[in-house]
Amino acid sequence: MDKGRLEAFSDGVIAIIITIMVLELKVPHGTDLNALLPLLPVFCSYVLSFIYVGIYWNNHHHMLHAAKQVSGAALWANLHLLFWLSLIPFVTGWVGENQFTSLPLALYGFVLLMSGFGYYLLARALVASHGGDSALAKAIGKDVKGITSVICYAVAIPAAFWNPWAAFVIYVGVAGMWFIPDRRIEQVMER
């Protein structure tokens, strides 16, 4: 099956996710800088989530660029990923409105964990349909960065109940780890 529809659908869903997230930023009822202070937690959670959605979009684009076709399993894995990504606006708003308290931060981490797992499933489904010796399989490799991310999320979820800021720092650290684009796929595709 051609990958074009999957890419177009995914791009549309991700664009809607980003649009929904920005709608959580309410206009302040004042004209000075102090009117913006109550919005700071909401804005910070928005920025982090925007970066995460951007990271997923960027890596999704690169992975599908390396794919030649998609299977039925890849379609379902992609829907699984998009489901979890679509929950990011909800948890982003909850974290921001409640100023980074334990339960919202833990649920935020759970959504990130499941998004990471969804991406992993999509990658495995694409590799399975292309074969273990394909350029895509070589580009994805052992995906140490992806597995490390999922482990970090799994650590951050209970940490949110112990120290919410520790969980937040872990989420920022994982985003920072991915902020620099992963060149594995580009390098394999250039060869």
UniProtKB/TrEMBL annotation:
Ion transport among keywords: yes
InterPro entries documented for this protein: TMEM175-like
Superkingdom field: Bacteria
An annotated GO cellular component: membrane
Membrane topology: Multi-pass membrane protein
Reactions the enzyme catalyzes: K(+)(in) = K(+)(out)
Major localisation: membrane
UniProt keyword list: Ion channel, Ion transport, Membrane, Potassium, Potassium channel, Potassium transport, Transmembrane, Transmembrane helix, Transport
Regions annotated as coiled coil: none
Molecular function terms, GO-annotated: potassium channel activity; proton channel activity
Pfam families: TMEM175 (PF06736)
Transmembrane stretches, start-end: 12-29, 35-58, 70-91, 103-122
Statement: the UniProt record of this protein carries the keyword Plastid: no
Subcellular location: Membrane
Family named by the database record: Belongs to the TMEM175 family.
Name listed for the protein in its UniProt record: DUF1211 domain-containing protein
Biological source species: Undibacterium terreum
